[in-house]
Amino acid sequence: MALAQHAFATSVEPLKDVQADPAPCLTAAGADDNDKAVDLCTALIDNENTAKPDRVKALIARGEVYARKDMVDRAISDYDAVLRLDPTLADSFNARGELWRKKGDRPKALADFGAAIKLNPGHAAARANYKSLALELERLGALMAVAGKPSFNCAKARRAVEKVICANPDLADLDREIFAANARAVREAENPRAARALQREQDEFIARRNAQFGRPGYDLPTAMKRRLQKLNGVDGY
Questions:
Q1: What is the Cα–Cα distance from 39 to 25, expressed in whole angstroms?
Q2: For the whole prediction, is pTM greater than 0.70?
Q3: Angstrom distance (rounded) from CA 64 to CA 29
Q4: Is 87 exposed, middle or buried (0-12, 13-18, 19+ CB in 10 A)?
Q5: What secondary structure, in 3-state letters, does 174-209 show?
Q6: Angle between helices 124-146 and 90-103 (to 10 degrees)
Q7: 115/133 Cα distance (integer angstroms)
Q8: Is the pLDDT of residue 2 over 50?
Q9: From residue 102, how far is each of 76, 80, 94, 144, 189 by CA, in Å?
Q10: Residue 223: exposure state from Cβ atoms within 10 A (0-12, 13-18, ≥19)
């Protein structure tokens, strides 16, 4: 009787939990089977029997899928989870940085690229991303510094047309763009004679602008836009 009771007790003991298998999730993600990968990886992530390293791999795989599907917020959320589980993954910091950059949050992107480099100084992608973003921020800072400012010194503006340009940020930006486009055209001219001819055209445009501004029918913004279009070409080059 005791033996029977012992056998019965043994037979009803719960089986030890079986560890979840990450292979189907990773295989689907590697094959770019996006919808299947999301389903399989989500099941793996939500499974309490999934080992921590496998959960990290599943989150990365699903994050990559979301990134391919342009679901940026969901991809960032997965990389957030990855880095909470393992904050030593330089690749994940770089990947999340690229997503922040795509979303337009440059400071967070730069911070993630920097974190990736700190973890792995030889991380080529993170170093390239950090460098290009730093240059982009530098250019944006330079543009912001001159935004709304024309090519000439407004403190010395005497003509009515110059004062109007100084008072209108859009016209000021147009004036600066015209000046830069003309300078480029003159610099890239085939020969000195062609360069002088190009500069003469610009001087004539300025003289015409000064003389005609304020007269009936003269449209300053339109005249400036046409001049810029002529300098840049129809296609903007």
A1: 8
A2: no
A3: 8
A4: exposed
A5: HHHHHHHHHHHHHHCCCCHHHHHHHHHHHHHHHHHH
A6: 30
A7: 14
A8: no
A9: 11, 16, 12, 21, 38
A10: middle
